[in-house]
Amino acid sequence: MSQSLDRAPLSDVCRFQNGGTPSKSIERFFTGDIPWITGADLVGPIALQARSFITEEAIASSATNQVPAGTVLLVTRTSVGKVAIAGMSLCFSQDITALTPDSEKLDGGYLVQFLRTKEEHFAKHARGATIQGITRQVVADLAIPLPPLKEQRRIAAILDQAETLRTQRRAALAQLDSLTQSIFLDMFGDPATNQMGWPRLRFGDLLANIDSGWSPVCLDRSAEDGEWAVLKLGAVTSCEFKPAENKALPSEIAPDPTIEVREGDLLFSRKNTYELVAACALVGPTRARLMMSDLIFRFRLKVDAQLDSTYLHRLLTYPSKRMEVQKLAGGSSSSMPNISKSKLSDFRIEVPPLPLQQTFATRIQAIESLKATHRKALAALDTLFASLQQRAFAGEL
Question: Do 397 and 155 touch, CB atoms closer than 8 A?
């Protein structure tokens, strides 16, 4: 049964502190031993690492502030909505707002969990042409439910435990990804050096075709069951296929079935930032009526190419090989880097004996089966966590 909870704006139960950046032109400011972080340093629930260290003089000469361990850190500029607890005494940039809760009214762990439910709220209120940010007032006006401190700590502990389970699943998936790379390295060596001496063949000689997609004006939503859709670039940017990253095709526009994505297709992002261009995804079981956008290529292998698609996928996504592919990208400072079909066709790839590629593919299939199990469990945990969050701040947990 839900209970009525008192609420208070965060401005009534927290003290706020801004951050700042010492002058980068004064090198001695960055020769100290005091951690100084930006929003990019917040990569987990606890801030324990910094890429920069500053001096006391730097603090005195800038707008940055030093806060003790246990302070709640909220990113309010650039990657808006990221939140963590300081795991050590540190200073921070203007990208971050520090929140110190009134210890008689508000528990820090409970505050962190509350702020994590507000990502959509922060995204909605973010403003800025190039750098998105939210104002202090957006945070200060948030009304937080205030059960007794003992109850706050109980709620935070439950949510922390659920988050730990999710983190463990994500870690297991990351370990399986590392295992895949280790198997590739053991069987084929680093393609950058090709120490095993595999033949390096022209990519275009192994391909029947490089298909490109189409980018009509679509609806501003994902497709529903039975609708045609066009894949967004995010469908392949993580080197895994994400069919949910799509936009619905308007019913008045006729689809093009020749560019429909099917299981077994090897997709490639030809255009993106330098960090994300040249992502490659091997399509597994997927829904029908998804078309490639014009930012995506599809590689079709020749029947006699002596090339396994699983091997090719892992080759193109192996870090050193992907860096080689990314160097093919052209583009001006005002446009995203783009890789042409002609440059891809002339690119050289390592081709070991087909039976060895097929043995590798069998091993990868077993790992992918384990990953599917972990993803399914993680999805269930995500659903549970969202439910717990909703109940926790509605007085129902």
Answer: yes
